[in-house]
Amino acid sequence: MTAPTRLRAEHLLEAMGLTIREPSLSWTPPAGTTSQAAYRITASNGWDTGKVESAACSGIPYGGPALRSRDRFEWRVRTWDRDEKGTETPSGWSSPMPVELGLMHAEDWTAQWIGPDEPQVPAPGDRPGYALTKTFLLPAAPNKARAYATAHGIYELFINGNRVGDQQLTPGSTSYNTTLQVQAHDVTALIREGSNTVRAVLTDGWYRGTFGYTRDADMYGTHTAFLAQLELESRAGRQVIGTDSSWLVSATEILRADLMAGQGVDFRKADGGSAPKAGNGAPVARAPRPCSAVVRPGSFTALAGPLAPPTRVAQELVPASITRLANGSQVVDFGQNIHGWVRLTRLGAPGETVTLEYGEALGADGDVNRDHLRPLDFRAPGAFRDAGQVDTVIASGAPGEVFEPRHTTHGFRYVSVQGLAAGLQPGDITGCLVRTDLERIGTFSCSDARLNALHDIVEWSFLGNSCEVPTDCPQREKAGWTGDWQLFVPTAAYLFDVTGFSRKWLRDVRADQWDNGVITNISPSPGPAATSAEFMGFTNGSAGWGDAVVMVPWEVYLASGDAGILAENWEAMQRWLHFVQATAETERHAARAAASAAPAPHERYLWDTGFHFGEWMEPDGPEPDLFAARSADHGIVATAYYRHTTDVMARIAAVLGLDTEAAELAELSHLIRDAWETEYLDFSGSVIQATQANCVRALAFDLVSPEHRPTVTSQLAALIRNAGTHLGTGFLATPYLLPVLADNGQLDLAYELLMQDSEPSWLTMVDRGATTVWELWNGIDANGTPHQSLNHYSKGAVVSFLHRYTAGLRQAPGSAGWERIIIEPRPGAGLASASTSHMGPRGLIQVAWTAAEGAMDGGVLTLTATVPSGTTAEVRLPGAPAAVVGPGHHTFPAATGRGTAQPALMRSTL
């Protein structure tokens, strides 16, 4: 048989620079495995587990010699397969995986934080980049060389003119006051005998650049800084070249660099990457005289290795078209909305400025339109801030000049190139998709081209919002909104491996949590002291947003089977729940108090005070008013999440072996459920605040007794029909809408909504040419006018319905890591075929079905399924008893079935 594959350490393919003493290991069993009976791990440092009788293939803790800073080992694994007769067969050995630790202790660092001396700091958005350089001599090339680097800002590192690595936007986005990532690189091949020059380019980045909707600047500090330690090993020992005041600082070609505003470059001012000369000698050509670096304060205890894959240029796009307008602008259409930047190889004449404006839509004049991306200025009602996303470049005339603004990012499909006399050709400009390098693990396709297109735009929307952290949009805000990720993470985790990506983000969520347990709306952030004191600080702690600290770890656990992510976040979950519980038990909404001086017994379980976003952005609903929301009664929404969070936490406690806490939480969840039903259902069992969203939550979060489910389902169906068979849900409830209908006897209605092609609907986006999911249902209205962000993935969570219902693959209740699955296609909308695949921890799962002509009217459906090692599948097909099958390839014929009500199969969160 073959060998194990997909070896990972801490869920990482590249485990370089870890700062974890006992990294967790995992692998995928060999193809064709029936049931893993045992494994054996050996490592180059002498670790040998021997044969371990276990079916586990993930979460295996390293158990070899104690690991220290800089230690490196390679590990490999083999497994034993047990067939139906009990015979065990060993696999071959896997290919080895290297794991290398970084600098784990503050005392490992001899380097100092350094930066440019800036007596006067320019205005935010107009701050230049600096080069920090050190030249040193070596009698011989080293046997081994490592570079460890990080920054207060964004840095690029070069050795002898060669860029170190292919990571972008380093050190990445984290809550810098508590965590600052260090990148570790093997630079042995770049160091040579004789003279060597190390050069770093440093700009503002997230540290002090403008950020988010409010364009706040200097969030973590007012001065940039750089820290690097080059360690060279030879027979003579270890030599360390660290940043200190002997390094030289010089200007670069980067006149300004800001993540929101854009980047400006003047190649006439480039230092060419050469070593600057200090003192009284002649200044470097075209550049001011270099100065000595200034030693700056900086933490060594906040430094950490990677938890998530690095950010890279993941894909390059060629223009779909280039159009010259009457005003001279050349509009480049890449045919796809992405996040990143462009690479421009055709520049203007020496001294001429070429301007690039990035946008998601075109105006009536055919040029890029950025107006819909301008954020409101909350401090000046009615005013808007500039949308940013503008780069400029001035050529020097030197051969081979290329403009690639790697110290900013943009969300765009179109680029308006202005001031360039020469005509652009497709080979002159390239779109660069910049994102965290996540592994794809899920697919879907079906017989309907528009549903395939919908699935594609959802994927692209996530790819454009997966740079460093899960962002809401890649242009106007670039912010890690908690609510967006808790809604979309189940979908993302099916399509991509987001385990490490989510762990990294959750580390920031924990760091940003307030002392009273409030979870901030956005992470990373400057920390509790800053977010609680800012102008809009009152908006933190909203139901559906703060609950992400519970729902995201739970969904990642279900996808990966790694309970470690639950343990890491358990304390933060408890603190959040304590805040919610204390608020519910000690506060009472003013309107409720005015109606009755004495609270009813159930009211202590209602969470009806404080700021809440509510359902947010319901079609045809009122315009959001954040200030009015401070006193509004959103109890029907908040109490629903209070119930749901306690229910999920009860299950988490059970997984962690906290039986007492699990029982207490389950009881509290039951009491909250009863309180919600008492307060928000009328005598007939109908929801009193009759909106689609409230009915959806009542069913999805199990807020109503079994006898009332048919009534609420009928109420929901009537609301949909009364809206012309259109959805009426906003931000929070939309992902649950179709599953709720399908699992409560309304499968046909679910498909009608899915296939609806008039506004508001998902297919309206497809029909109007969207290449990513819009923030608003009318992101491009019937007149072609753009509104707000055209790249917000939250509404795209609908494609989970395609995976779990249309194609028919989902986890069984109580399963984690895809150990037990249910295969149950529930076709509709005249589809003739559908297929999906998912690479789970135990291997590839595949499901595909085709319907013979007339199958939707009672014909034959043929299902094929591939079940991986150690996995049990329950296959449910109409007209036949459920079949339980194990690993292998299976084929089933069956009649089609329609509209079966199965509320017990609802997903835990999504």
How is this structure best described in words?
The chain has 910 residues and is α+β, with helices and mostly antiparallel strands. 21% of the residues lie in helices and 26% in strands. It contains 16 helices and 43 strands. Strands 21, 22, 26, 27, 28, 29, 32, 33 and 34 form a nine-stranded mixed sheet that branches. Strands 2, 4, 5, 7, 8 and 9 form a six-stranded mixed sheet that branches. A hairpin with a 5-residue loop joins β30 (361-362) and β31. α6 (548-560) runs antiparallel to α7 (564-586), α11 crosses α13 (734-742) and α13 (734-742) packs antiparallel against α14 (747-755). It is globular. 54% of the residues are buried.
**End-to-end distance:** 37 Å
Provide a count of the helices: 16
β-strand amount: 25-35%
User: What number is the mean pLDDT?
Assistant: 94
Q: Unreliable segments (pLDDT under 50, ≥5 consecutive)?
A: 276-285, 899-910
Q: Structural class of the secondary structure composition?
A: alpha+beta
Tell how many strands the DSSP assignment holds: 43
Task: Please sum up the structure shown.
This protein is α+β, with helices and mostly antiparallel strands and 910 residues long. The radius of gyration is 29 Å and the shape is globular.
